[in-house]
Amino acid sequence: MPSRPKVFYNPLCPVCRASFADQRRRMDAAGEPVEWCDINEHPDALTEIGADIEAVRLRLHVREADGSLAIGSVAFVALWRRTPGQRGLSRFLGLPGNRTFAAFLYDTFA
User: Fold this and answer.
1) What tens digit of pLDDT does each residue of 25-36 get?
2) How many domains would you assign to the chain?
3) How many C-beta atoms surround the C-beta of residue 20 within 10 A?
4) What is the pTM of this model?
5) Does residue 1 sit within a domain?
6) Which of 39, 42, 51, 97 has its CA 20 to 30 A from that of 58?
7) Between β-strands 69-71 and 35-38, what pairing exists: parallel, antiparallel or unpaired?
8) Does a structural domain hold residue 55?
9) Checking phi first, is residue 67 left (phi over 0); if not, alpha (psi -120 to 50) or beta?
């Protein structure tokens, strides 16, 4: 089983690239142990999550340390939960009534 979360992301999308650069900077500064996987450089890694490259190009995928998989807005909430300054946002968006809203926003911008 993995010892830390692994983020499967698409840096070819300009919006995604900027978002992940900021998220990675925040998490590195906080000392959060996360593995970052550029799916374009390492498409073979997608076998770890059973997804094809197009699925990850459309939605962020995070494999948690326990092996579970978070996709889309749920994946961002999982990252924010580990990030100082973003934990409150993760709690708010993780509430049952807000999950649908978060998914809508994610799908609109993704």
Assistant:
1) 999 999 989 999
2) 1
3) 19
4) 0.88
5) no
6) 97
7) unpaired
8) yes
9) left
